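Slide 14.
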Amino acid sequence: MQEKTLLTSSLLPLGFQYPGQLKRLVEIEALEFEPWTILTGDRLQQKFEGIKQRYPQRTLVPFAMREDLDDVACFDVQNNNYICIIHDYASPGWEQNNKRIYLTFHEWLRDAFEHFLERGDWEADIY
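Slide 15: predicted structure.
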């Protein structure tokens, strides 16, 4: 079983800290908001290292990915830790083409959860 942890401070860019809301989601293992998954453990570390290699001109800290696309939600350390959605594996300079920016983690989480609710057939479960 994969350990449910975020990156340690020794791996993160100097001065970067995860928001408390993200730490709490990991702590209670609330990691699935279909189509989004919060990344933890080895999977997070591999994605972090891969993004650093593919986009060396940027300082991005990934924290979630879409399971149906190559989209990854990242803290953009060079831009006030705003959250950007990149299309991983796109050519450098095209990774963020026409993707939304969120000013806070809370804003991203609200949007992700709304998409999660829209995707389910919840009314069928009620009756």
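Speaker note: The chain has a mean pLDDT of 91.
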